[in-house]
């Protein structure tokens, strides 16, 4: 007999898988460009170099994998959205990409010298299980690194989007419940969870990112078509709520107009652990 938590986890996982497959192309053109800004920092954190066997968990459309391949790493990627995997294979023909579940990796224990996960941890119903699996497939002496968004108090982009929804719309929309979006935006939480799974020499630091758009009017439409939960939350508002939210986002984004377009600051936490 399955309990309610199992049902909730599976509903969340299925939503994320279906949604990311649906938006894979738009995600690749928009959000993946933004999140790739921290690729080099992630690879540096796990000592990526020529010949190292690296697993990219929740590889998406393969931007981080491509950066690792440029360093001549031996790259394996995994994602639960098949269309994401298909794009990653096109981008990185030298890599090996698989459709699979981060919480139930099919790889042998001790197979990789580095495991990375760029902004995937918030998409796992059971992050602890995913971290434990990454620990299992690492060789002793290997390193693991993941990133996650920082909360709106330190993240102007998230403050703008979620603040506009909270003020003019509803956060209570009919989406499968998932883990807290900003849980790992807390350094203490990152340290505690990694340590609990056996990692040592844990370090956590914040990295800046910029969201870029051509105009303030582009922000909300681009988020709707290229993100899973944020996009769905925006799309599920009433017509009046959407108009008011969009106007608020346009007004807020206008403050970040530069000669290069709109550049809205944000940040992620980079958490790193060592397998003794």
Automatic annotation (TrEMBL):
Domain of life: Bacteria
Record carries keyword S-adenosyl-L-methionine: no
InterPro entries the UniProt entry points to: Methyltransf_11, SAM-dependent_MTases_sf
Transmembrane segment boundaries: none
Keyword terms, alphabetized: Methyltransferase, Transferase
BP terms from Gene Ontology: methylation
Limits of the Methyltransferase type domain: 55-146
CDD domains for the chain: AdoMet_MTases (cd02440)
A single GO molecular function term of this UniProt record: methyltransferase activity
Name the record gives this protein: Methyltransferase domain-containing protein
């Amino acid at each position: 007999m399955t309990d309610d938590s199992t049902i909730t986890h599976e509903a969340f996982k299925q939503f994320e898988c279906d949604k990311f497959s649906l938006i894979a192309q738009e995600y690749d053109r928009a959000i993946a460009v933004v999140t790739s800004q921290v690729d080099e920092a992630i690879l540096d954190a796990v000592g990526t170099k020529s010949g190292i066997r690296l697993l990219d968990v929740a590889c998406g459309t393969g931007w981080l994998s491509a950066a690792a391949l440029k360093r001549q790493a031996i790259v394996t990627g995994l994602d639960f959205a098949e269309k994401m995997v298909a794009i990653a294979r096109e981008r990185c023909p030298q890599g090996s990409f698989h459709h699979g579940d981060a919480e139930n990796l099919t790889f042998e224990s001790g197979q990789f010298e580095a495991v990375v996960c760029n902004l995937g941890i918030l998409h796992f119903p059971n992050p602890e299980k995913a971290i434990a699996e990454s620990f299992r497939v690492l060789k002793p002496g290997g390193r693991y690194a993941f990133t996650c968004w920082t909360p709106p108090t330190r993240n102007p982009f998230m403050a703008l989007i979620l603040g506009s929804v909270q003020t003019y719309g509803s956060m209570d929309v009919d989406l499968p419940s998932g883990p807290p979006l900003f849980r790992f935006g807390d350094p203490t939480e990152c340290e505690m969870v990694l340590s609990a799974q056996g990692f040592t020499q844990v370090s956590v630091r914040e990295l800046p990112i910029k969201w870029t758009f051509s105009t303030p009017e582009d922000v909300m439409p681009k988020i709707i078509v290229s993100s899973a939960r944020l996009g769905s939350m925006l799309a599920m508002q009433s017509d009046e709520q959407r108009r008011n939210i969009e106007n608020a986002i346009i007004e807020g984004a206008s403050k970040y107009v530069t000669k290069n377009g709109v550049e809205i600051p944000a940040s992620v936490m980079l958490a790193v652990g060592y397998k003794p």
